[in-house]
Amino acid sequence: MPFAAHATWRRNRAWWIAAAGIALTLAGLRLALPGLLKDAINRRLEAIPDYSGRVDDIGISLLRGAYTMHGVRIEKRAGDTAHPFVTVETLDFSLAWKELFRGMVVSEIVAQRPRLNFVQAPTKEGSHLDFDRRWQEVINDLFPIEVTHFEATEGELHFVAPAREPPVDIFLRDLRVRVRGLRNRPDLDPGHYPATLLVEGRTPGNGTLSLGSELEPLAPQPRFHLRLKIDKLSLPAINQFLLAYGQVDVSAGEFTGYLEMVAREGRYQGYFKPFFEDLRFSSPKDREKPLLARLWENIVALTAKLMKNDETGQVALRVPFEGEFGDTRVRRWESIKTLLRNAFVEALKEGLDGHPRPKGDPSPTPTGDPPKDRS
Known about the structure:
Blueprint: H1 3-46, E1 51-61, E2 66-78, E3 81-95, H2 97-100, E4 107-119, H3 133-142, E5 147-161, E6 168-180, E7 195-203, E8 207-215, E9 224-234, H4 239-246, E10 252-264, E11 267-280, H5 291-306, E12 314-316, E13 319-324, E14 327-330, H6 332-344
Parallel strand pairs: 4-5
Antiparallel strand pairs: 1-2, 2-3, 3-4, 5-6, 6-7, 7-8, 8-9, 9-10, 10-11, 11-12, 11-13, 13-14
């Protein structure tokens, strides 16, 4: 073999050996990465104060720039017991390629079948009713790239109060949540809402819930315009809640409600419009109830009957409220006036009114239309 040909063969051989070594190293790293990532995530979840958590498995997709957590579980620790707080079947974290082509390295999160349990226990230590700073730190550690889009499908949200009488477990199911327009720097325009939140779901008794909000999540003080509609909620389906917190036993009836609220510069203003239809409180079990419980239930039933609009068959009112966060003022007399007007003068119209605005807010008057999905 000529010397030049031999030298070329040796260089090619060395190149192929190096390439094979790199490929084997990458393959080994690819095989080891899910286990390493799983261990790191489980250590972080176990370090949450007063909580414990873990994931069952991790999937890696190098082409998508993504990893997927399977079987996510976070529990609240209270002494020797633990109660489920969050479970998620799959949680996918990936690069947002559309934004990457624009020079922005941002990410998307998609959760499948998440379940969130809010628990009211006899003690603060046993309860978990909100999110605090510790969860922001966990999110920043698990998803280090700025998240601009979040979506959840087939979700459930439970409120549980096992110590009440009767025990309470009410829930929303088939939840779909979509948040768009998230960013890592606040928008300084006081009249602009860069992000949108859309929530849809089913209430007990197969009613529906829809919530839409335009918001600035990073504003120093809350800044949002929120609209909520609950339609055809079956009251007997939440009887345990009504008995535990309202001391009334509803045997029939539906609830439809509308809420709209605008917040800016530490102040907020809004209204709530509840509509009750076909209310009935009588029950075969009434004879077994204590006398005071039956008396209170009869008072509520009589009030509902007197305040019902003859044409629509509904009991309805409009409850305006305003104030600063932590200091709410409800306009009780205006609420009573709308109750009486609905009963004896003119039926209150269903739907959003579209004009709450904090005093001194120079921004344009919001409309009652839901925010548009920017998909």
